[in-house]
């Protein structure tokens, strides 16, 4: 968005990468100009039509309609006559008779934000695991979800233990799935809510933050059945209380022959066995007989807890870790401690 001699230029939104604030910016512009009593006209200003006289590019909309209704009308008008129905194009918001100082004052004035209504579950369920994985990748790459604050009660952990704010992940995924600017008021987060359900289906681990909501996560009948076959240690039981999804994780790691195969392949590739995290070489320290027993295998793929019955785990899905690093990682996965850097 930029000031011009005719008013304000609102740049187009291209896919999910350019001008992600397009809808919010246009609605805010209209709301604040209404509030300041500044008259305005909106014109299509995409490069292919800039040679056309301005009067032929004016977009019609109902000036007394709700802001959200006006936005929908403008989108339909800007796509009229094209094969696209959802492109958000470059616009000129012309404000004849208003100087730049008046426009800046109007934009900086306090105005009521568009009303945010809770979305129905059917719309929230349009979010798929692919949308969530893309949101995770964007956050891990350093992007932010500016409409959402940091989490107070829970973290959504990747399987490498990196903590993310659950509502930020789901908010970005919702924007991708539904094509809206998502806000906290659009959905709830917590056990039994669609947000947490879909995040866990996508393979994230939801854990309480230190000092956060102390309420335990309910165990499903499926988790109870798996727990009966696992015979966990006392420490593993405490991990499971922190996050029952680790039951599936532990069972996968205990598949017969899997650790042996991974160790053999690792030695063939690297010539020796060592911890991929702390670089401990147990054979050098403890000798070959005891040394090999110090290295354990860990599932490091995000979706391990959601593998379907009969899934064949590949050794590329595994990581060689010393017993200490493996234990610390499991604890981080369940208690939401500092991020694990894999």
Q: So how many helices?
A: 14
Distance between the termini: 39 Å
Largest sheet: 4 strands, antiparallel
What spatial form do the alpha-carbon principal axes imply?
Answer: elongated
* Count of the domains: 3
Q: How many strand elements?
A: 9
Element-level helix/strand string: EEHEHEHHHEEHHEHHHHHHEEH
Assign the structural class, choosing from mainly alpha, mainly beta, alpha/beta, alpha+beta, or little secondary structure. alpha+beta
Q: How large a portion of the residues is in β-strands, by DSSP E?
A: 5-15%
Rg over C-alpha atoms, rounded to the nearest angstrom: 27 Å
Mean pLDDT: 75
The largest sheet has its strands arranged as 1-2-4-3
Query: Which bin fits the share of residues in helices?
Result: 25-40%
Uncertain runs:
211-216, 301-314, 336-342
Brief sketch in words of this structure:
This is HNH endonuclease. The protein is an alpha+beta fold and 342 residues long.
Description:
It comes from Aminobacter carboxidus. This is HNH endonuclease. The chain has 342 residues and is α+β, with helices and mostly antiparallel strands. It has 3 domains: 2-108, no CATH class; 121-208, no CATH class; 231-335, no CATH class. It is 39% helix and 10% strand. It is built from 14 helices and 9 strands. The strands form 3 sheets. Strands 1-2-4-3 form a 4-stranded antiparallel beta sheet, with helices on one face. It has a 3-stranded antiparallel beta sheet with strand order 6-5-7, sandwiched between helices. A two-stranded antiparallel ribbon has the order 8-9. Helix 9 runs parallel beside helix 14 (323-335). The model is unreliable at 211-216, 301-314 and 336-342 (pLDDT under 50).
